[in-house]
Amino acid sequence: MIELLIVIAVLGVLAVAVLATINPIEQINRGRDTGQRSDAEQLLSGIDRYNATQGIWPWQTIQADDDAVAWGLVTDVEDSAGCSLLDKLAQGSGACTGADEVKASFTSRLRGTTYNPLYMEYGGEAGESVYVCFQPKSGAFRTEAQRRCDEGVPADFPVGADCAGCVDDPTACYICLP
Q: Hey, how many other C-beta atoms are within 10 angstroms of the C-beta on 57?
C-alpha cells in the first residue's frame, strides 16, 4: 500500500513538472500581453475622463487646437505647450499640471525602458475612436490580432497598425483598443 502511494506521488510530481514545462515562455508572454491590454484600457479610460471633465483632449491646450494625433508612441504625445500626455493625465508638475486621472506609478511604468511600448492614434473627426495599440508577444494574442485583421477593421483603424504587414509577418500585428 505504501509503495502504491509513493508511486502515485511520484507520478503526480512528474505530471506537474511536465505541465509546468510545456511552454512557460508562452505563458509569461500571455501574462504580459494581458497586462498590456489592461494598461491600454486604463490609459483610454484616463483620456476619456480627462476629456469629460476638461472639455478638451489631453493633447490640446485649448479647444481650437487640432484634435488629431498621428500614429506614434504614447510617451511622445504632447500638447502645443510641450506638456506630455502622461503628465497631464497624472499629477504633472509646473506648467504641465495634471488632472490626477491616472496614478504616477502607472505613467512611470509606461515610460520604463523594459516596457513593451503603447502606440496611439486619433483621426480627430467626430465619431472616430482614440486607439491605443501594442504589439503582442504571445502566440494567442498574435492570433487574435490576425483574426481581427482577417475579419475587417473599422474605417478609422490606425494607419500605423495597418493589417497589410500582419498578413506576411504575424509579429507585425497590433492589438488595438478602444
A: 23
Q: Residue 24's CB: how many other CB atoms inside 10 A? A: 9
3-state secondary structure of 72: strand
What is the longest distance spanned by two Cα atoms in the chain? 82
CB 129 within 8 A of CB 154: yes
For the chain, how far is it from start to end, CA to CA, in angstroms?
59
Report how far residue 169's alpha carbon sits from residue 59's, in angstroms, rounded to the nearest whole number: 32
Give the pTM.
Answer: 0.82
Total residues found in the chain within this entry: 178
pLDDT in tens, 59-100: 998 888 878 999 999 999 999 889 999 999 998 667 788 888
Domain boundaries, the chain: 25-72+117-177
The SS3 of residue 69 is strand
**Pair 30, 23: CB distance under 8 Å:** no
